[in-house]
Amino acid sequence: MNHNTPLSPRPLSHLAETHRRVLTTAQLRAHGVSAAETTEQCRAGGPWQQFLPGVFLLHPGPPTSEERLHAVLMYAARGPVPQPAGVPAQPTARQPRRPVPADVMITGLAALTLHGFAAAPALPALEKIDVLVPRLRRLRSAGCARVRRTAELPAPEMVTGLPVAPVPRALADAVAGLRDAAVVQRLLTEAVRGGHCEPAAVVRELSRQRLLNRPHVVDAVDSLLAESRSIAEDRLYRMVAEHGLPDPVWNVDLRLPGGPHLGGLDAYWPDEAVALELDTRAPRQNDDALWTEYARKRELLERLGITVVHVTPKKLRDAPAQQATVIRTALMAAADRDPAVYVVVLPR
């Protein structure tokens, strides 16, 4: 059957685009189609079908993945609303003109698939599509639309013209419904290894949704942080080599001669008494002691005349040249400082 054939007393052939084959009751009414006419078109064997409450497909066959996504957004928004701020007024190849809800967005596994996660299922394999809505929205899950409420909506990212939750929020919503530890770990690892976001943002969102009390999530987060540190170390090695910094001694412990252990460092330039530490802290439950240890070690080393440079994985990724300049400046300033206390450098 030709799905674009006019199917009502008031032809809708001008609405042949994909998203126009999915319309709400209000949109149909605006096009002059009454409730009685809609019911008649959706009779058994008829040319239309009701896909979600108040949302109709203007063809009888199975919906495409794109139609399912649009139907879920329309159900959650109950019709089109103005484009959210920041979306171009003119359509582009990535952001075509279409009704985009301003306060609803795709989240969970469907969002991760749209973000390009290889570990996320293909859209046709998803029985449910998660949609994020304001907490006070009076709406229930129905059909393939699974409603998730939040008191604070994140700013959506536009992917293929659809509003999609940012990766950290989409990950947390996906993890909330997963019990398979291996799947959770694959998704979290891909988020970092694929450069989608920083671990701290993921852990912060998981903590906000109170998911860090689940053992399989905690295990996946531990692996995520280890993965993050490994990637950051590789970036640190490349930064030193590519920006012509003198070679430090890597991964060392410092001690006072015959005295206490001062702490471990990722890199140390003994001639200049400059220490570098990768700051891979993430906001986790009960990590106050870790934050305190970072501050204690830095204060102790600087009291001994050792300059401590903290570098975050995000800065290494986004601004390696700037971080190299910070380190070079600290090395050059060594000549103007009083000599540091002699320390013993041991491999870690």
Question: Can you summarize this structure?
Answer:
Helix content is 37%, strand content 18%. The protein has 348 residues and is α+β, with helices and mostly antiparallel strands.
Q: How are strands sequenced across the largest beta sheet?
A: 12-11-10-9-13
Strand content: 15-25%
String of helices and strands:
EHHEEHEHEEEEHHHHEEEHEHHE
Low-pLDDT windows of residues: 1-19, 79-101
Largest sheet geometry: 5 strands, mixed
> Roughly what is the average pLDDT, rounded to an integer?
83
Secondary-structure class: alpha+beta
Tally of DSSP β-strands? 13
Distance between the termini: 71 Å
Helix content: 25-40%
So how many helices? Answer: 11
Radius of gyration, rounded?
27 Å
As for the number of domains, it is 3
| Gross morphology | elongated
Give structural notes:
With 348 residues, the chain is an alpha+beta fold. It has three domains: 1-61, no CATH class; 62-225, no CATH class; 244-347, 3-Layer(aba) Sandwich (Endonuclease, Chain A), CATH 3.40.960. It has helices spanning 25-30, 35-41, 65-77, 108-114, 167-176, 181-193, 199-208, 215-242, 288-303, 313-318, 320-332; strands at 22-24, 49-52, 55-57, 105-107, 129-134, 145-150, 157-159, 162-164, 249-255, 261-269, 274-278, 307-311, 344-347. The strands form four sheets. Strands 12-11-10-9-13 form a five-stranded mixed beta sheet, with helices on both faces. Helix 4 packs across helix 5 (167-176) and helix 6 (181-193) runs parallel beside helix 8 (215-242). The longest helix has 28 residues, at 215-242. It is elongated.
